[in-house]
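Ticket reopened. Same input as before:
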Amino acid sequence: QSVLTQPPSASGTPGQRVTISCSGSSSIIGSNYVFWYQQLPGTAPKLLIYKNNQRPSGVPDRFSGSKSGTSASLAISGLRSEDEAVYYCATWGGSLGWVFGGGTKLTVL
Amino acid sequence: EVQLVESGGGLVQPGGSLRLSCAASGFTFSSYWMHWVRQAPGKGLVWVARINSDGAIDRDGTTTRYADSVKGRFTISRDNAKNTLHLQMNSLRVEDTAVYYCVRDREWVLGDYWGQGTLVTVSS
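Engineering reply: fixed in the latest deploy. New output:
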């Protein structure tokens, strides 16, 4: 059981906007930055969002992150077939070290 | 171009040992904190260990951190002269079976670069 809770699955049609949530305790998410990673099938994870809402260079602005209280969200607008992947949230868990959510498998219908 | 290339994975019996390596290039290796993150087959990501950059010491005087599940069995180390990160894994258990990723940390940004991973299988 993960310290950060994500829905196991999400779906959308091309062009749609989808959001993936990540919730945790006030001592973890509430006190630290949230990060998001995208893992395409058969590949290593890739950093998608850092420090709640910052995009690394090369990540399209269709991807955005936000955080409020003990929850964070990843939003993907203008959904494309190549966005089909597993998405993970993560944060610094103090004595636990870095903690990840269980991952959300996004299906593009 | 930043590259992280893991090696050393393979099949090992329960109770055995294995040493993973990660060859880094394209950046000043000694200046970055580094991590190992693992992923069991069909499962999610799990952080394993961290080592500080050269000269960086935590408040408790340590330079490494471990997940509770590997504490006392795994040792993370680095050879800055050879730009290489290591993970010595002892007393391996079946539940340690996973792909192990070498991950760079850029000032508390975990994973701006990831290696391709190396598979460790613990089985009799």
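Strands of chain A lie at 9-12, 18-23, 34-39, 46-49, 63-68, 71-76, 85-92, 98-100, 104-108. Chain A has a mean pLDDT of 95. Please confirm and we'll close it.
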